[in-house]
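Today's session is about reading a structure prediction critically. Students often jump straight to the picture, but the first step is always the sequence itself: look for stretches that repeat, for charged clusters, for runs of hydrophobic residues. Only then move on to the predicted structure, which in these notes is written as discrete structure tokens rather than atom positions. Here is the chain we will use throughout the hour.
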Amino acid sequence: MFAAHAAKLTTDAVARDPALDARLRQLAIDHYDFVWRSLRRLGVTPPETDDAAQRVFLTLAQKLPSVEGGKERSFVFGIVMRVAANVRRDRATARLREVPESDATSSLSHDATAETALAHAEERATLDEILASIPEERRIAFVLFEIEELTLVEIAEMLGIPQGTVTSRVRRAREEFRAAVTRHRARNKGV
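Below is the predicted structure for this chain, in token form.
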């Protein structure tokens, strides 16, 4: 049902203009990985990430005629932030029972590939846990700067805030990240 609705929305939004259709396709190609990673770093878990990414592009399809050329990435990230917030809110409201990645992977066989997959899953879970400990406004700036490697100017433009505010948020998030890593290491060593 969602797929049919998504196809209708996309068709309605861009069917009138082949140029918009081509622009949407190119934006999806150019920004899908960024959207997916950003959703993950903003707290959207893997079972929900693909659907959330699809919602981002459906919203983009509807709003595409009003998106100024050259500012698509900022616009897309704004949609990503709203979709991620909605997913987290919906999850909290529904109080879904999720199976942690560590439980899901515990049934894997112990060959080298399974061990590698488990190690990667544990690393992702650890990074997600550490990032989740940073307040959202600082986490967003930190992820965009440190992980997505955007400049402070690009982040300021994307978030619509002064560059000095971005600098401050990144600095504070770095401190919080280091402290969270230290806490995590201490916990793992039994300290």
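Discussion point for the tutorial: The chain is about 80% helix and 0% strand.
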